[in-house]
Amino acid sequence: MLTEEEQHQLYIQFDDGTAIVCTIQMYGCMLLFKENENTNFYYLVAKEKPNPLTDAFNEAYFNKILAEAKNTISVKALLVTEQRIPGLGNGVLQDILFNARTHPQTKLKFISKKDIQALFFSIKKTLFEMTGEGGRDTEKDLFGETGGYQTILSKKP
């Protein structure tokens, strides 16, 4: 059994003895490209769409995402598939939906305007809180420190 320090997918040690260690849990990848040579789909989509933490990710933009989606998909599918909102995945989805009081399997055709607005504000608020607290308490940063955001729904007891 490997120790926590030995479990990594990337370990770069510098001449001064410092190092960068990267690990991936569940879905993720690490890519290295020269400038303007990255053709990775997920990277390109993420660059062209607004970050949910910016003003560009506003209600009008969110409503456009909804209008372009089939109304037969679930709220969960809307938020975490097809790179509609790059970077938003299952790990943050649970708290977003909980805060919006929306069941993940609710089909878009059954969601009200009030529910859509609650969902939009929950995305913004929950992600701002997670970011402001240095990440979720279920994840570690580059220094091995867990984030300060107390997850509502997670595997953590």
Structure description:
The protein is mainly alpha-helical and 157 residues long. It folds into two domains: 4-43, no CATH class; 50-132, Helicase, Ruva Protein, domain 3 (Orthogonal Bundle), CATH 1.10.8.50. It is 35% helix and 5% strand. It is built from five helices and two strands. It has helices spanning 41-48, 59-68, 75-80, 90-100, 113-132; strands at 10-13, 19-22. Strands 1-2 form a two-stranded antiparallel sheet. Strand 1 and strand 2 form a beta hairpin. Helix 4 (90-100) packs across helix 5 (113-132).
Q: Which short descriptors sum up this protein?
A:
single chain; Helicase, Ruva Protein, domain 3; 35% helix; two-stranded antiparallel sheet; globular; 2 domains; 5% strand; mainly alpha; 157 residues
Main sheet specs? 2 strands, antiparallel
Task: Report the end-to-end length measured between terminal Cα atoms.
Answer: 24 Å
Q: Share of helix among residues?
A: 25-40%
Number of strands: 2
The order of strands across the largest sheet is 1-2
CATH class of the largest domain: Mainly Alpha
Strand fraction equals: 5-15%
The residue-averaged pLDDT reads 87
Radius of gyration: 18 Å
Shape: globular
* Structure classification: mainly alpha
Annotated CATH topology of the largest domain: Helicase, Ruva Protein, domain 3
Give the secondary structure arrangement, pairings included.
Layout: E1 10-13, E2 19-22, H1 41-48, H2 59-68, H3 75-80, H4 90-100, H5 113-132
Antiparallel strand pairs: 1-2
